[in-house]
Amino acid sequence: MRFAILGLAQTGKTSLFRILCGPQTHPEAYGAHIGVAYVPDPRLEELARIYHPKKVTPASLEFLDAPALAGDPDKDATVFGQVRGADAFVHVVRVFGEQPNPGGDGADLETEFALVDLDTVSKRLGKLERDLKKARTPELELEHRIVEKARAPLAAGTPLRAQDWSAEERKLLSGFQLLSAKPLLLVLNAGEEDAPHLEQLPQKHDLGGWAGQPGVALTEICGQIEAELAELEPADAAEFMASYDLRESARGRLLHSAYGLLGLLTFYTVGEAECRAWAVPRGTVAVEAAGTVHSDFGRRFIKAEVLPWDVLVEAGGLAAAREQGRVRLEGKQHEIHDGDVLYIRHGA
Ligand SMILES: Nc1nc2c(ncn2[C@@H]2O[C@H](COP(=O)(O)OP(=O)(O)OP(=O)(O)O)[C@@H](O)[C@H]2O)c(=O)[nH]1
Ligand SMILES: [Mg+2]
């Protein structure tokens, strides 16, 4: 799952990227960088205490630090081209410095998204109408109906993620990689004077319209301080946080929001070699989960042994949990729950 970090120049995009991914990042084309953020997970730590594995691998999300936006759809076309394939966006807006206008900056990007999408959709409609004149197939008519349905809100400047879509409509629209259809995490980046009362920022800047919108999450950070924090040892970090009256590091909060926004859950695989957490969408079934772990496991799936992580911890291991009859044997279509541990049985 990949998030692209967007925002105007000097709003704190790279600071946020460093908070999430640390210093190990990979340069991409056109000045963008890609990094991996590991999701802090106390449940995984407890599982690792039983197995003492060689390797502990938390779930991860990818972030792309995109070049600054100019605030104009024509000038921003290159950046939008780079981030189009992301699963969701993080929009960093400035709340520090001179005359911050986070609500306005947030709304401006929504307008840009809608304009760019309107262009994509209008071009597609033109093509569909030409094709329909040649042959009226049910497929073309269906696509025409869906694309036409998307055009109306875009023309009014409303993002597509705020609309109700059926699964069929969603599937078709996802092929167009429309910007305003993707989930959005709006990050208010405040100055250090706001560090002790970050949660009051949405009220202070009148962001009422943003909170609670479908497909939108809102988080406040103090980017500059927390980017420094991300590079300290844990003991130094605690002291540093206290000195700024910061209660919780932004990293955990941001990743938690990102997880919720994408509707993800975590399942685990355990063993002496590796204990690992996996992030998958809610609704994932056993055979899909197996395929995430290894494509061969998905193809040759037979059954999965499933038990909640805390039951495994209480039993002290999979063998003991089996003896106690606390492990269920599940088939391909069994829906995975957050916190499940899977032991996948597959053919050779
Ligand atoms: N006061 C204050 N300044 C900040 C904060 N975050 C960023 N800045 C300032 O903004 C500058 C740019 O921060 P970056 O994280 O590099 O911002 P960016 O959005 O990546 O910048 P560009 O990539 O150049 O568009 C920093 O050098 C700081 O001076 C903050 O939380 N508070
Ligand atoms: Mg930058």
Secondary-structure map:
Blueprint: E1 2-6, H1 13-21, E2 25-27, E3 33-38, H2 42-51, E4 55-57, E5 60-65, H3 77-83, E6 88-94, H4 102-134, H5 138-155, H6 167-174, E7 184-189, H7 201-204, E8 216-221, H8 223-229, H9 234-243, H10 250-261, E9 264-269, E10 274-281, H11 286-293, H12 295-299, E11 301-308, H13 309-315, H14 318-323, E12 328-330, E13 340-346
Parallel strand pairs: 1-5, 1-6, 4-10, 6-7, 7-8
Antiparallel strand pairs: 2-3, 3-5, 9-10, 11-12, 11-13
Helix pairs in contact: 1-8, 2-13, 4-5
Plain-language structure description:
The protein is of the alpha/beta class. The protein has three domains: 2-39 and 61-102 and 182-261, Rossmann fold (3-Layer(aba) Sandwich); 113-176, DNA polymerase, domain 1 (Orthogonal Bundle), CATH 1.10.150.300; 283-346, Beta-grasp domain (Ubiquitin-like (UB roll), Roll). Helices cover 41% and strands 21% of the residues. It contains 14 helices and 13 strands. The strands form three sheets. It has a seven-stranded mixed beta sheet, with helices on both faces. Strands 4-10-9 form a three-stranded mixed beta sheet, with helices on both faces. A hairpin with a 5-residue loop joins β2 (25-27) and β3. α1 (13-21) packs parallel to α8 (223-229) and α4 (102-134) runs antiparallel to α5 (138-155). The model has no long low-confidence stretch (mean pLDDT 92).
